[in-house]
TrEMBL record:
GO MF annotations in UniProt: neuropeptide Y receptor activity
An annotated GO cellular component: plasma membrane
Protein name: G-protein coupled receptor 54
Membrane spanning stretches: 56-77, 89-109, 115-147, 168-188, 219-242, 299-316, 340-360
UniProt feature, compositional bias: Polar residues: 266-281
UniProt-annotated stretches for the region Disordered: 266-285
Membrane topology: Multi-pass membrane protein
Organism taxonomic ancestry: Eukaryota, Metazoa, Ecdysozoa, Nematoda, Enoplea
PANTHER family associated with the record: LEUCOKININ RECEPTOR, LEUCOKININ RECEPTOR-RELATED
Keywords, in A-Z order: G-protein coupled receptor, Membrane, Receptor, Transducer, Transmembrane, Transmembrane helix
Keyword NAD: no
Amino acid sequence: MACLVVADADYDQLEITNASECNCSDPAYWYNELCDCDYPEATSIALVHDALPLGIWYGLVLILGATGNSLVITVVIRYRKMRSFTNILLASMSTADLLILLFCLPVQYCKYLSHSWIMGAFLCVAFHYVELMTMICSLMTMTTISIQRYAAVAFPMKSMSFRSKKRALKTVLVTWLLSALLAVPILFGQELEVYKTPKNVTVSWCWRRFSDHYWEKIFVLYQFVILYLGPFATTAISYLLLIQRLYFGEANSLLQENVSARSVGNANGSTAEHQQTYQAKSSRRFCPRREQSKKVTKMLVIILLLFFVCWTPTLVDEFLVAFDYLCHTSPTTTLKYMRMIFAIMKFSNSCINPIVYAFMSNSFRTTFIIVCNPLCLKRRHSLPVDSRTHNRRDSPISERSLRLHSDIRPTELLDGAQSVFRKQRLMKVKYAKN
């Protein structure tokens, strides 16, 4: 019985025991040594029935992902008030998504256009290394954000020093270096195998093959438990604790206690009535921030869940194969198409995050509109790039509309832009009449 050998989400060989089982109309049989088929002149044979729908989907993912992640990086770099600790880390995650889309996605599609690996030994190793490194970087970034946001609510005073922009940039650098280091073991597991078919056609395959099957199990355990489940569990626990504090009022009571202690310590002759008034005002100031934290937390939890849904199938599949719970062989092409869908899911995750930001974050939505609006792009004063080079009084849209920690009021910002444009049109009409 013919069994489809599916490894590494690619079109692979068919393992057969009898030449009568060969089906030369199927490209999967062209490279089997037992089959006396008319082999193609080149190994790059387009499989139209699979390549066309995959090409359309991958094209959409590439366009949406490259545009969206570039916008995220642009607004964080360009607009000073968007450079909060969380936003800087989100821009780092967008960089990882952009890397996997621009480097790994085209290589993945080339695997589907050709029946064998035609891109050489370097890309065989680099493709899987970059893919693993960006996955680690994204997950570690989400873990860092979750811990930081919990600390900001649970320990607002102590965590102030850890939320600076310089600290965020250092965190990004450490995250990338650590991700690059943790992905190194895969360099010893990818191998390019080259051989010739009975028709003297050179065929190459990019396999995951360690020196011993035991080491493959160790690597998969390391990848699944330490690199994936560990950070994911830490992130999930941090968000659960954060949600508990936000929705059960503990953060508000903590802030009131801090304000009360500070009021007593700094004003020895103050009355109890003054202290209560001070606490009430501080509580009112905290309420909008608390609601903002709830919105941001919802957005970040959705991003985490989407990452989990998109990446888990591929990692679970590799785990089951390494431990022989799922066989490499299958009598049908079900496993092949299943792994093609898994690959689509993990690449699609890289284009989803900017869409989530646009729908759930007022700050990102507003800055996206400003960057994409041709009218705003033509006006240098639509939004100052940096307060050091633009005077706030000369700017029709003040940076004050970009609130602390990316809490932008879009109506305030856009209304300001519209009023400026109306004044300019009235001036043009006045000059035309004169």
